[in-house]
Amino acid sequence: MSKAIHKALLSKSANKFTHANNLFIGNGVLYLTKSEDDLFKHMVRLVCSQQLSLKAANTIWSKIIHQIQYDKLSLADICNKGYEESLRKCGLSGNKVKALQGLKLAFDRGDISKEVIIKSSHAQILEIICKLWGFGPWSGDMVAMFYCGLPDVWSNGDLILNKGIERLTEKETTTSEQFLAHFSPFKSFLALHIWKGKNTGLL
Length: 203
Fold this sequence. Notes:
This protein is mostly helical and about 200 residues long.
């Protein structure tokens, strides 16, 4: 599937968007890999990642894992009321702690579940997740892309993607909106190429 999508991206960009075409060729075939975590764990990690670099987010996550092992707790346990100080020691802000506690309650109440999310469209996922305190469209986009594996997701709230598409379109006679529409229904893969291009210096 990914190879077929890569071929489609090359076809869509050939003789039309030279910079994007070069990026696709340079990156090669990319795969949209769904998270192996359960939904709750996936969303906890999203909270750790909000507005942070990958390195900083991974550091916080490592501290959380160490803390729950030290306290002999589960990930769900440490997100309950009463464990605020343990989470703060891991490097989470007060608002992120509040978001995790609200997330735990939402799962307990059945406001959100794997069974509902995996059957939902991108728009439905956004509607569900944006109702949770501390979660916005970016979190919904990441769930849709990396938990559900939806191939046509674009996150307007992602700074790297915004800078990347600006770079790709600045020398082309097109707007960001037209550019994104052109690469539908494979915008998730376009995002993967931009993220990788930024990391490797191709973009």
